[in-house]
Amino acid sequence: MKNKIKVYRAMNDLSQEALANEVGVTRQTILAIENGKYDPSLILAARIAKFFKVRIDDIFLLDSIDE
Amino acid sequence: MKRNYFYLCVAAVAFFEVAIFWLSVELADPLPSVIAIVLGILGIYLAKMYIDEVIEDERTQKITEITALRTLQITWIGLFLFALWIIIDALGEGIRRFNRPLGIFGFRLLILLCGIIVLYVLLSLYYNKKFGA
Asked: Which of A47, A67, B35, B86 could form an SS bridge with A23, CB 3.0 to 4.6 Å?
């Protein structure tokens, strides 16, 4: 699964640490999600989307293989 | 409490445990060690409640789950092979010259491994039910 967290972080001038604190996870988890090493749970994806005030599928995109 | 203070607390508890273990050995009494371990676990648990920062999240929980499962699988297979090795070794000279203490140890180990499977199945059924199956 691809995501645009890095883009949204840049748009909001937010560090990984700050985003991690806002959504209640560790900085390493945000890093792992951004690098595509870890797919977040639906709850975490929803929290991230809610924080950026967008829909989940605005940030998280399914790869063609996943589909 | 900051995360680093928590790790300092864990280190302090570890030193405390070593000291009490040493005392237990000197007194030849296991009770202080047992009490110290229970108190140490409670202390760490309480300290963990007061951490302001996030040190565990869904990713670390997933890592813990997979690590625990792999550890269980590897340990089980390793101990099963070890138990078989012991039993075959004990029976190696034939039934009449059966190495009794070694053989009994091997069979007890096999029973323990069967117990682990039973526990695994029971917990699996419980969590299957809990999560909607």
From this structure: A47
A36 at B interface, C-beta within 8 A: no
Quickly tell me which residue has 């790869």 as its tokens. A63
- Nearest by CB to B59, which of A21, A38, A43? A38
Query: CB B59 to CB A21 under 8 A?
Result: no
A3 neighbors A61 (Cβ within 8 angstroms): yes
Angstrom distances, CA of residue B69 to CA of B5, B55, B59, B73, B128? 30, 21, 15, 6, 16
- Nearest-CA neighbor of B111 among B79, B85, B68, B88? B79
Closest CA to A29 of B57, B65, B48: B57
Spatial distance between the Cα atoms of B33 and B51, rounded to a whole number of angstroms: 27
What predicted TM-score, i.e. pTM, was given to this entire model? 0.74
Cα–Cα distance for residue pair B72/B84, rounded to 1 Å: 18
The closest CB to that of A24, out of B54, B60, B62, belongs to B54
